[in-house]
């Protein structure tokens, strides 16, 4: 009964369990139950400076945990609300003068029981403690998802093709699709019905669509009086979509309903272009470091004004290469030749270098080693990482045939969350 009480006091699904499998490294262990204790505890002590408790496991490993951290994260029902997976203890009531009066091993060597100086008692399971180890390695597992370790791809990369209906019906196929999207950044689904509404069905499996001022699903078709170049037949330089949003949609899906085939003997125009911006940025970092740094450090203005799903007037300043302040790693490409504003928020003496950098980046995107060129077939759905891949298309002649795509966006939050749900 004692160990049952102990389990009920802890989160039903521990975060370590939620993340298990999302990492390529198998260091993160499987969910342990009270009947399969992985790290029995030998003893627990308090350090001489009275700042940490020290847990020694039976396998010889020792881990330290700060007192303040344990007080803040007490897992008892008084301090932690299991259903919402949230602490009920407030930072305002945290007492930093409180000390650990005693620490002991309990529940058949599966937990540590602390008694605090004010008499409060809290128990921490070996699993809870192990999963929250302060070791660098453990912390990296929590941080690292597929999108943080991309596999860079060149123009000859064989994009994975999956059956659209199978992805809708089989969670294993959906998971395969989403994992490729995270890691590789692009995937193609085949055999969707050649009619609008297919993306909505896909969205229902992933989570939900990211609505923008172009609506939920948008139609890419050559139309008169278009408010976006995408809705014309002109060529589009490779770009990321919606660079004028503070947080542009992470993922884009394009469903080809009707493809442009031109004249019978010349299948020219309406070709899709796709390039892994990360590999191009990497090339620049290696070969043109000054230009790479310029694109990391120079915000430019993107804007969009008009009326579609709603009236809109968006302005956002972003560097072309967005990097993580903590790691310096590239996290996002924000680039669109057509949406680059003529209001340039930089020192005029830096314009020359900026233009050299943007030109270098764009030209490299079109290098045969990097630019994928293909023509989507009717019924195919192209899904790609809009924070990483740039896309474009070649011009086509609308008097010689139609071209009709339906598109939508997703946020990375929903996609990555769906991966974790499907894996667990
Ligand atoms: Fe686009
Ligand atoms: Zn408590």
TrEMBL record:
Official protein name in the record: Gamma-butyrobetaine dioxygenase
Pfam families tied to this protein: GBBH-like_N (PF06155), TauD (PF02668)
Involved pathway(s): Amine and polyamine biosynthesis; carnitine biosynthesis
UniProt key word Oxidoreductase: yes
GO MF terms, alphabetically ordered: dioxygenase activity; metal ion binding
InterPro entries from the UniProt entry: AlphaKG_dependent_hydroxylases (IPR050411), GBBH-like_N (IPR010376), TauD/TfdA-like (IPR003819)
Keyword Metal-binding in annotation: yes
Domain Gamma-butyrobetaine hydroxylase-like N-terminal span(s) in chain numbering: 48-129
Listed CDD domains: CAS_like (cd00250)
Family: Belongs to the gamma-BBH/TMLD family.
Alphabetical keyword list: Carnitine biosynthesis, Dioxygenase, Iron, Metal-binding, Oxidoreductase
Gene Ontology cellular component list: mitochondrion
GO biological process, one term: carnitine biosynthetic process
Residue span(s) of domain TauD/TfdA-like: 161-409
Source organism superkingdom: Eukaryota
Cofactor: L-ascorbate; Fe(2+)
């Amino acid at each position: 009964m004692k160990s049952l009480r102990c389990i009920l006091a802890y989160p039903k699904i521990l975060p370590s369990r939620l993340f298990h499998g999302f990492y390529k490294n198998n260091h993160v262990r499987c969910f342990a139950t009270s009947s399969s204790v992985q790290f029995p505890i030998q003893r627990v002590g308090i350090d001489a400076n009275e700042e940490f408790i020290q847990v020694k496991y039976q396998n010889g490993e020792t881990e330290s945990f700060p007192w303040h951290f344990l007080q803040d994260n007490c897992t008892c029902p008084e301090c932690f609300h299991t259903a919402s997976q949230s602490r009920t203890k407030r930072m305002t009531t945290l007492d930093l003068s409180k000390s650990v009066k005693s620490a002991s091993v309990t529940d058949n060597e599966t937990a540590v029981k602390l008694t605090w100086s004010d008499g409060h008692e809290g128990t921490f399971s070996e699993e809870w403690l192990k999963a929250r180890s302060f070791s660098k390695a453990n912390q990296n597992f929590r941080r690292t998802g597929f999108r943080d370790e991309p596999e860079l791809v060149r123009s000859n990369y064989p994009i994975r093709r999956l059956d659209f209906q199978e992805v809708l019906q089989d969670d294993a196929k959906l998971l395969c699709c989403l994992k490729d999207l995270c890691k590789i950044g692009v995937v193609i689904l085949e055999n969707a019905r050649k009619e609008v509404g297919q993306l909505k069905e896909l969205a229902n499996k992933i989570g939900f669509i990211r609505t923008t001022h172009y609506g939920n699903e948008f139609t890419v078709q050559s139309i008169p009086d278009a408010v976006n170049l995408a809705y014309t037949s002109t060529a589009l330089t490779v770009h990321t979509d919606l660079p004028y949003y503070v947080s542009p949609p992470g993922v884009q899906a394009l469903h080809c309903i009707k493809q442009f085939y031109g004249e019978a003997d010349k299948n020219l125009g309406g070709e899709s272009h796709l390039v892994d911006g990360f590999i191009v940025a990497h090339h620049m970092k290696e070969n043109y470091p000054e230009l790479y740094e310029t694109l990391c450090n120079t915000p430019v203005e993107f804007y969009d004004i008009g009326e579609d799903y709603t009236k809109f007037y968006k302005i956002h300043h972003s560097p072309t290469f967005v990097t993580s302040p903590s790691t310096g790693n590239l996290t996002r490409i924000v680039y669109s030749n057509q949406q680059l504003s003529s209001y340039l928020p930089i020192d005029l003496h830096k314009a020359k270098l900026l233009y050299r950098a943007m030109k270098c980046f764009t030209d490299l995107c079109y290098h045969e080693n990097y630019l994928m060129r293909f023509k989507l077939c009717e019924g195919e759905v192209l899904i790609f990482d809009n924070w990483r891949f740039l896309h474009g298309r070649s011009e086509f002649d609308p008097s010689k045939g139609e071209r009709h795509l339906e598109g939508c966006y997703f946020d990375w939050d929903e996609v990555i969350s769906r991966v974790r749900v499907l894996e667990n």
